[in-house]
């Protein structure tokens, strides 16, 4: 496994990490999750991602139960949680939280942190992220609250996920002016269908401010792996209970174009001796601004296969990367 610094911080994360979104509690029960986590840890993965909203908090509980059962030393791994939505059911409007049970107020950030620690069964979070911007948010309130959690030892590093770069820069500037600990991580979607935000909008925060990127969905929920070449099969991630919105989110009306683009990767992958999934993950890893790529896997076999993607990063010459870009070229990214 390769280890990379989280931006300019001193923290080193495995270049490939493992997330609990969608699969925990749906494709994986406790035993399956524990087996996948054990394999990831054995292969050198030291960062495991979750959020308060994932399966209404149950994903964090599953991760916590597995960590306890596996007996990992606390100083050998990192976990993250994300705050905003509360423990509502995966953004389902029917599951309406009370105003103080969601958002980015000081009250919810602090209480959500305590609740995440209880679910994990841990004393502190390594990373704590504001899951999305909150229309009612106060940047000073967020900055002061996160700073206080770090100074209390409940959080080690904090940051954002899918925030506009302008808001992140404003947070950093406010923290600097007030001698607060600034955000050090942003967690954006990054894959061959979604390049613009990481490569353009976030370039300044990565290069100028040293913010580390912990990217998610390297396979675009399986599209780049060829899982939906012939349609959406029953039992797939896009048909999981509680995730009826995910298909529209992934495809956004571009199903045929995306499938065709994914199929064009097959020849390039074959020439490298990799699968399409491994090629797509290696492509994300080749970006030096990326601190870690978060994988989601629903079996040991799938996880082992995807972890092997790191072996192909050095094979991605500029010529091959250009071939990949041409194969994927069909429309500009849609906004997230």
Describe the protein's architecture and organization.
Residues 16-318 form the NADP-dependent oxidoreductase domain. Keywords: Ion channel, Ion transport, NADP, Oxidoreductase, Transport. It holds the Pfam family Aldo_ket_red. InterPro entries: K_chnl_volt-dep_bsu_KCNAB-rel, NAD(P)_OxRdtase_dom_sf, NADP_OxRdtase_dom. By secondary structure, this protein is of the alpha/beta class. The protein has one domain: Alpha-Beta Barrel (TIM Barrel), CATH 3.20.20.100. 39% of the residues lie in helices and 13% in strands. It contains 13 helices and 10 strands. It has helices at 30-42, 58-70, 106-120, 139-151, 165-177, 196-201, 203-207, 246-251, 255-263, 265-272, 276-285, 300-307, 318-328; strands at 3-5, 12-14, 16-19, 47-49, 78-83, 125-130, 155-160, 185-186, 212-215, 290-295. The chain has an 8-stranded parallel β-barrel, surrounded by 4 helices. A two-stranded antiparallel sheet has the order 1-2. α1 (30-42) packs parallel to α12 and α4 crosses α5. 45% of the residues are buried.
What tags apply to this protein structure?
336 residues, alpha/beta, TIM Barrel, 8-stranded parallel barrel, two-stranded antiparallel sheet, 13 helices, 10 strands
Q: Which secondary-structure class do the elements indicate?
A: alpha/beta
Distance between the termini: 31 Å
Overall 3D geometry?
globular
| CATH architecture designation | Alpha-Beta Barrel
Regarding CATH, which class? Alpha Beta
User: Number of helix segments?
Assistant: 13
The CATH topology is TIM Barrel
Major beta-sheet overview: 8 strands, parallel, barrel
Number of domains: 1
Uncertain segments: none
Mean pLDDT reading: 91
Give the DSSP E fraction (strand runs of 2 or more residues).
5-15%
């Amino acid at each position: 496994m390769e280890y990379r610094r989280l931006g300019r911080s001193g923290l080193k994360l495995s270049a490939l990490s493992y997330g609990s979104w969608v699969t925990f509690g749906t494709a994986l029960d406790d035993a399956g999750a524990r087996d996948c986590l054990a394999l990831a840890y054995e292969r050198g993965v030291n960062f495991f991602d979750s959020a308060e909203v994932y399966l209404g908090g149950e994903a964090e509980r599953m991760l916590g139960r597995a960590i306890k059962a596996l007996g990992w030393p606390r100083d050998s791994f990192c976990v993250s949680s994300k705050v905003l939505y509360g423990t509502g059911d995966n953004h389902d409007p029917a599951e309406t939280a009370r105003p103080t049970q969601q958002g980015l107020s000081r009250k919810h950030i602090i209480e959500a942190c305590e609740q995440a620690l209880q679910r994990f069964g841990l004393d502190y979070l390594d990373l704590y992220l504001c899951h999305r911007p909150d229309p009612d948010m106060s940047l000073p309130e967020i900055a002061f609250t996160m700073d206080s959690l770090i100074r209390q030892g409940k959080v080690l590093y904090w940051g954002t996920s899918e925030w506009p770069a302008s808001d992140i820069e404003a947070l950093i500037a406010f923290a600097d002016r007030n001698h607060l600990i600034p955000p050090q991580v942003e967690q954006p979607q990054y894959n061959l269908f979604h390049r613009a935000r990481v490569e353009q909008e976030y370039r300044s925060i990565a290069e100028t401010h040293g913010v580390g990127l912990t990217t998610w969905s390297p396979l675009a929920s399986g599209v780049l792996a060829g899982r939906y070449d012939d349609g959406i099969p029953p039992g797939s991630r896009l048909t999981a209970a509680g995730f009826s919105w995910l298909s529209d989110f992934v495809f956004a009306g571009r199903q045929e174009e995306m499938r065709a683009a994914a199929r064009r990767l097959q020849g390039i992958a074959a020439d490298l001796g990799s699968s399409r999934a491994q090629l797509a993950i290696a492509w994300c890893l080749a970006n030096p601004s990326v601190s870690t790529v978060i994988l989601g896997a629903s079996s040991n076999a799938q996880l082992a296969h995807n972890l092997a993607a790191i072996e192909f990063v050095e094979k991605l010459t500029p010529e091959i990367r250009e071939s990949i870009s041409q194969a994927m070229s069909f429309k500009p990214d849609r906004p997230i």
